[in-house]
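For the sake of transparency, this paper describes our internal protein records without simplification. The record that follows is passed on verbatim for readers who wish to inspect the format:
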Amino acid sequence: MKEQGTKSKVAEPTAKKTKTVDTTDFRQEISINGAVVQGYPLTAAQRIHLYTVYGCKREELLNIGIGFYIQYDKVNFDVLKECIYDGYQKFECMRLRFHTDENGQTLQYLVPTEDREIKVFDFSNWREEDAHEEMTRWTKIPLNRQGGPMNEIVLIRLPDYYNGIYMKVNHLTMDSQAIMHFCSYVLQLYCSKEFEGVEPPTLPKRYIDQLLVDLKYEQNSPAMMKDQAYWYEQLKQPEPTYSSFSARNRLEEFRAATNDPNLKATYIIGDLEAAIKVYDLEEEPSRRIVQFSKENHIPVAVILLMALRTVFSKFSGNNPDVVLKNAVARRGTLLETKSGGTRIHFFPLRTNIPPETTFMDALKIVYAKENELLRHANYDAIRYMGEVVEHYGIKPGMSYEPTTLTYQPVNAANLKGHNIPEMNFKSKWYSNGVAMQHIYVTVMHRPTDDGMSFNFEYEKKEVTEEELEKLYYYICRTIFKGIEDPSITVGELLDWI
């Protein structure tokens, strides 16, 4: 490791001629309880999650817990079980297992069927908040990554005739979009069996087919070399500076603690114990954001990114050069969209926007930068993190990005236009109790009313709820001032908020 603040020369990548790799090159025979199965290496997206587990040594970090409930007292749990078993069979990623050999290499493989018992838990006589607290406790229990099932599903009865599914899944096998597609598949299949005129869902794509595409990319493919060249080019920029997500300037605190006023990065991991705070934006203002997005051909994700980077600039002395981490769900093709699995990569999105820039022009700058990022988002994000550390001479675990944003446009109740009874929905994301970043922002559309929910996962001892509340307040204040007056300059907006 070089001394703090020294810069390394960026090595230019060179394209290599590569032969076409046969799929069998990736397969390794492994023995599981005497049975020989075909194992496959992990993808870059999976290695990201494994890297974080090795870093914090808390296996439950990989748990995702979700609840999806319908207010319908005639739910047939026997039919719902049949639909879940059908989903197990159709979605290969639901049948993934992992095996770590004596050399420490982790391989993934499929089991042919999934016939585990699907239990029913009756919370109908509980207080609802107690029921959700119990399912939060379930979410904190690690799954057995050495050959064990990577998901658990329980059928749930809640008060007020809400019935549905609690699901815990390991992030190595599914991301939130994959989970939503699975839940949508099961729900639509159930409705097609129970209600007249409802078409069954379309079938998902094979997970293994997409896995092989990803593994081929990593074999120094021309596409990978092109992406590497792009990210090497980003390293030629001057060193970025950490931006604050609240009035508390953690970078200045770190500079004071280390007696180094020139530091530009700080540690973003503290006490790992975490919780989730949710702020629900009402349906009408949520609709205004979506309408502005459609009318101006600016994705909602870009509006959210613009709001975040503006607030971070405000909390950092109106610094125009802001970097945050963007979570990219790489699902641009039908195979990527319909094959399940985990496809999230995390890359820094850096924009330098002068104060005289209008809100609309700033949106276009963010949009162009995100499009650049998306075109090169297949590159190994962990590898790039290491290249950033090496190039700028910072220590592992330090970062310039105050938070990560995930935007989820998919919801599990996407059945509009189908002939099903009118019914109310509830959905819930449950905390696994662990976080590897001070704050992580996930924005999604509620299945209940199409309003937007802002989910803040945060380290409880590092971030206060007051900081979260103010961050949410300033995000909304920025968005609505900007969409009401797109000609306002960034400088005027910073002064106003």
